[in-house]
Write a structure and sequence with these properties.
The protein has 268 residues and is mostly helical. 72% of the residues lie in helices and 4% in strands. The radius of gyration is 18 Å and the shape is globular. 43% of the residues are buried.
Length: 268
């Protein structure tokens, strides 16, 4: 009979890490697949949520660094596809290059903070910020970025976004808020979020390797997770195609609010 505790050994170049999973290994993989299908469904529908849902729910049955590693490859691939299939990449970069540059610079600092202060409730604080913003937006709060201040504010918000990415694995705050303030169309907003999440994921992956939290075994498993994520995204995209701009905005904000509430209740 399969043991209820699956002890998985993964070796890095300098250390051996033991991961104790309180379920059988096959059950663990099955549950991770279901979580990633759900995360992919949300990603395909509204364009974000894959890392946050995948890491948040995945950490309930493993740990945050493991969940971060498992979501890396699916996040890279889905965001490349999202960029390719949505708005104008040139227009998006011309409007948000300063923010995008800042969004990768301090990811290692955020991950260092998590390693140094493991008991601080980073995810709950992030979730509260998301929840307040989403509920305010649903009630008419819709700030517009003045273009003469765009790049200066964009760089500062990008640096804040990069720190929070390293701390929580969520790449949405304040990035999604900033991108919405640019008054982009639905397709350009999806493209801009794809660029943000792609470069942030690459920065997070490099930081995990730097802090010796990544292994070859987990990287292989991350590649395998592209299948359940891809299934979820495929379903979500078909839902998104039937939505109008107004319907998309409402679903987008309610999904963002649900994401914030989830982090407040279940976040570390």
């Amino acid at each position: 009979m399969e043991s209820r505790i699956a002890r998985v050994y993964v070796r890095s170049c300098k250390a051996e890490i033991t991961l104790d999973v309180e379920i059988g290994l096959s059950e663990f993989i099955g549950q991770i697949c279901l979580i990633f299908i759900l995360a992919g469904l949300v990603k395909g529908t509204v364009g974000f949520g894959l890392p946050t849902i995948g890491i948040g729910l995945g950490a309930l049955i493993s740990d945050i660094p493991t969940a971060m590693m498992l979501i890396l490859v699916p996040t890279v691939l889905t965001n490349i596809i999202q960029i390719w299939n949505t708005g104008s990449l040139v227009d998006v970069i011309s409007k948000s290059w300063a923010f995008l540059l800042g969004s990768v610079l301090l990811v290692p600092l955020g991950l260092w903070a998590v390693v140094s202060l493991p008991s601080f409730p980073f995810e709950r604080l992030l979730g509260l910020t998301i929840l307040v913003y989403s509920l305010a937006s649903l009630n008419g709060f819709n700030p517009v970025m003045q273009m003469q201040h765009n790049h200066r504010l964009g760089m500062g918000l990008g640096l804040l976004n990069s720190v929070l990415t390293g701390m929580t694995g969520s790449m949405s705050v304040p990035g999604v808020m900033y991108l919405r303030s640019l008054q982009l169309s639905k397709d350009d907003l999806l493209c801009a979020m794809g660029v943000l999440f792609l470069i942030s994921t690459i920065a997070m992956g490099m930081s995990l390797w730097w802090f010796e939290r990544a292994t070859q075994d987990l990287s292989i498993l991350s590649v395998m997770m592209c299948l359940p994520v891809g299934l979820g995204v495929w379903c979500g995209v078909r839902i998104r195609r039937v939505l109008s701009e107004d319907q998309f905005k409402q679903i987008f904000l309610w999904a963002f609010a649900a994401l914030g509430l989830y982090l407040v209740v279940f976040g570390a």
